[in-house]
Amino acid sequence: QILSRYVEGIAARFGTHDDLIEFMGGASVPVFNALTDRFHPIEALSDLLTLHDRFGGLRGLKLAYVGDGNNVCHSLMLSGTSAGMHIRVASPAAFQPDQTLVERARELAAQAGGSIAVTSDPAEAVAGVDAVYTDVHESMGQPDDPQKRLALAPYKVTAALMAEARPSAVFMHCLPMQRDMEVEAAVADGPQSIIFEQAANRLHMHKAMLLLTLG
């Protein structure tokens, strides 16, 4: 409540989503979810802006998310299906996205004309898509987990995996990345990579959100 008397809006990151909800309950100004363990919505919206810029629209686009079914994956599933996109997620069984959110994405897809599919096969997910997306295998603030790294190792985005996508497909990553862990350096730095366009568009999405909420 004190912070709300100092500022007109608050952008905050929390280790748990429940902490964000509790914080919002005490605030009297708009609170922007800059990241929690469950969602990363501003990142996902910026990514959709990047895809819209590249392809001229979102409806019908196919995006494959490969790797840890984490907060970024959750937000991409929900925002992408809301926009009529076809989202495919490839993750090992122990690290697939939250099933309740998969079902919610399925409901949104039914309304918007998109789809959601979850598999453990990266090649199946990437086949014929317009965009291939991954995130770090070790998320910020999480303890070192050798077993998780081992489980996710087959989900590295390689040039061979990118070849399964459409020739015009783009590679995406929310950054920061660990080159040659979740993605080959040749892909991250290659001609299909639009990671810096993603980063630049976050600025424009932030400005749009501030204009929409604060005027």
Structural class: alpha/beta
Strand content: 5-15%
What is the CATH third-level topology name of the largest domain? Rossmann fold
Percentage of residues in helical conformation = 40-55%
Largest sheet: 5 strands, parallel
Q: Strand order, biggest sheet? A: 5-4-3-6-7
How many separate domains? 2
Structural description of this entry:
The chain is built from 10 helices and 7 strands. The chain is α/β, with parallel strands linked by helices. The protein has 2 domains: 37 residues, no CATH class; 158 residues, Aspartate/ornithine carbamoyltransferase (Rossmann fold), CATH 3.40.50.1370. The strands form 2 sheets. Strands 5-4-3-6-7 form a 5-stranded parallel sheet. It has a two-stranded parallel sheet with strand order 1-2. Strand 4, helix 5 and strand 5 form a beta-alpha-beta unit.
